[in-house]
């Protein structure tokens, strides 16, 4: 295999190596709150005026959202209500869970634990069970479960990381339940990093005042899905794969959500599912490539739940903000956008510009670090890749010097293997990184019970929301490790509360697509072309427009 760095990048790596002894002796200072805000407001994609626009339809008309989200919300449905036969119900269940990642699986399990018979739950997922952003989560799960830590400190860190725009009662739920989640996972057989004495090893995360990241090397999300997928199989919850939801159903009299229309991706036939309670756990929107950025997200992350929930009247919040993880792979091109976990920096890897200079404290909140990297590249201190993209160096060999030979292979095995497959040994050479679209900060607003809310604050009967599709927990920026805590805490809460709803009701709701007719009238009024349809379901990577995509940093 030829050298993926080539002679030009090799010359620049010499600068990293020459400056390493000096950088070993010092750290970049932490920024003040005012300095953080100034940096983010100038350089983060959330503040670029060309990335967003005002919504013209739906319950949150007038709200500003990313252009790519607006395109989906101002789009025609995939089905015509008059062409769907609702007289034949394919599945009649108590609880329908839409989404087969961590939030959906946790919701299904806790509904079962709460007394709902497994065969009265249906878990429908777009791809295979576990094909979700969860398995791609590398770093860990935040939970304050040590004597020197507390849920209160976790609460304050989370509010600060979210620029104090989080919904406080949701943050309280997150930090209060997180230690319970760690215990649950350990009881299921989760292989957490532990010392030889058996004590949990906890790592530092950006924006956190204590070490509270619980990890399984750098494969935490993969290990998480391993144990909870096994549990779903063990308890016997039915799973319908390759069957994404393309529309929710509503009771024409009460407006309650009463199930969904699913699409079988293999036969292209639709299926009708009637349910007393429906849990949306469809994940995020990375595959929309907002603002032209690459993404860490899995193939099915196309904001389906936002579209479905919005059409039945759910309130959106914080959809004008997305999280761009500071360190996505910038080179080689084959892995551009793939996650380089925060644990790499918590172990001692430093971010270095083309001059070999430190330019940011590596464990600032993610939006701050991402903004600093974009600034360096925009002001000419970045490194150009052979295809014209940009990045900065992440000095990974420094980890070996600080923590001893073998640390990277032991603590970051997945990252090590990912780069080795591209011909780069990260124990010897630094790597190029640039921000990558990672997480949907906002979503459908919920209450602490996971119930979907309308703009007037009332909850939508029968509809629960959990995980990345939900909004309010993280505010305008999520801290590392809070996503895995979020999906499990609110997956559990939605499962428990959906179970309470169905066990207190003996009657099944009626089903209709009446809400869709109302929405379509709005689309007609503003002249949305019939060619624009949503949900997207899967991204299309064909054509010159996609192949030539380049990130504009200015």
List keywords for this structure.
alpha+beta; five-stranded antiparallel sheet; 16 helices; 33% helix; globular
Provide an overview of this structure.
With 554 residues, this protein is α+β, with helices and mostly antiparallel strands. The chain is 33% helix and 17% strand. The protein has helices spanning 6-24, 33-43, 67-73, 102-113, 151-161, 168-188, 220-235, 304-311, 343-346, 366-378, 397-403, 407-411, 413-420, 482-503, 514-526, 544-547; strands at 52-54, 64-66, 91-98, 121-124, 141-142, 202-203, 213-214, 239-240, 245-250, 257-263, 270-280, 316-317, 323-329, 350-352, 383-384, 390-395, 431-439, 443-445, 451-453, 459-465, 470-471. The strands form five sheets. Strands 3, 4, 8, 9, 10, 11, 19 and 20 form an eight-stranded mixed beta sheet that branches. Helix 2 (33-43) crosses helix 10, helix 4 (102-113) packs parallel to helix 14 and helix 6 (168-188) packs across helix 14 (482-503). The longest helix has 22 residues, at 482-503. The relative contact order is 0.20.
């Amino acid at each position: 295999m030829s050298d993926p760095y080539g002679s030009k990048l090799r010359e620049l790596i010499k600068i990293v190596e020459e400056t390493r002894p000096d950088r070993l002796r010092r750290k970049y200072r932490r920024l003040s709150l005012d300095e953080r805000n100034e940096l983010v407001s100038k350089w983060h994609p959330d503040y670029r005026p060309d990335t967003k626009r005002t919504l013209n339809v739906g319950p949150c008309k007038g709200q500003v959202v990313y252009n790519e989200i607006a395109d989906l919300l101002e789009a025609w449905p995939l089905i015509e209500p008059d062409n769907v036969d609702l007289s034949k119900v394919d599945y009649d269940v108590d609880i329908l869970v839409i989404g087969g990642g961590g939030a959906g699986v946790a919701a299904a399990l806790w509904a079962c634990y709460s007394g709902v018979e497994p065969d009265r739950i249906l878990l429908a997922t777009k791809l295979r069970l576990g094909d979700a952003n969860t398995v791609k989560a590398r770093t860990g799960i935040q939970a304050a479960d040590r004597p020197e830590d507390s849920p209160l400190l976790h609460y304050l860190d989370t509010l600060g990381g979210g620029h104090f725009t989080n919904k406080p009662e949701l943050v309280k739920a997150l930090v209060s339940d997180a230690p319970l989640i760690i215990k649950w996972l350990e009881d299921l057989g989760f292989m957490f990093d532990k010392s030889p004495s058996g004590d949990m090893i906890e790592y530092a995360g950006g924006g956190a005042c204590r070490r509270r990241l619980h990890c399984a090397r750098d494969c935490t999300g993969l290990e998480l899905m391993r144990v909870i997928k096994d549990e779903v199989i063990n308890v016997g919850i039915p799973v319908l794969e390759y069957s994404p939801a393309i529309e929710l159903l509503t009771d024409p009299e009460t407006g309650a959500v009463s199930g969904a229309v699913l699409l079988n991706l293999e036969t292209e036939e639709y299926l009708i599912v009637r349910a007393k309670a429906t849990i949306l756990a469809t994940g995020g929107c990375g595959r929309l490539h907002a603002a032209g950025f690459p993404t860490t997200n899995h193939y099915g992350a196309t904001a389906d739940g936002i579209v479905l929930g919005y059409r039945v009247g759910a309130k959106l919040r914080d959809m004008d903000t997305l999280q761009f993880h500071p360190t996505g792979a910038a080179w080689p091109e084959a892995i551009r956008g793939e996650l380089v976990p925060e644990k790499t920096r918590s172990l001692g890897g430093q971010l270095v510009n083309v001059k070999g200079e430190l330019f940011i404290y590596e464990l600032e909140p993610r939006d701050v670090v991402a903004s600093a990297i974009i600034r360096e590249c925009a002001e000419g201190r970045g490194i150009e890749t052979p295809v014209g993209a940009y990045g900065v160096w992440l000095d990974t060999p420094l980890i070996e010097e600080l923590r001893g030979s073998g640390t990277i292979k032991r603590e970051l095995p997945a990252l090590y293997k990912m780069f080795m497959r591209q011909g780069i040994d990260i124990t010897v050479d630094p790597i190029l990184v640039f921000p990558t679209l990672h997480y949907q900060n906002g979503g459908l607003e919920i209450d602490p019970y996971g119930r979907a809310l309308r703009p007037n604050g009332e909850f939508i009967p029968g509809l629960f929301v959990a995980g990345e599709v939900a909004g309010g927990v993280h505010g305008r920026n999520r801290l590392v490790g809070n996503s895995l805590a979020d999906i499990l805490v609110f997956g559990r809460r939605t499962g428990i509360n959906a179970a309470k709803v169905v066990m207190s009701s003996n009657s099944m709701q009626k089903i209709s697509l009446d809400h869709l007719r109302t929405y379509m009238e709005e689309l007609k009024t503003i002249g949305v072309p019939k060619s624009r349809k949503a949900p997207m379901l899967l991204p299309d990577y064909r054509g010159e427009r996609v192949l030539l995509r380049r990130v504009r940093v200015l």
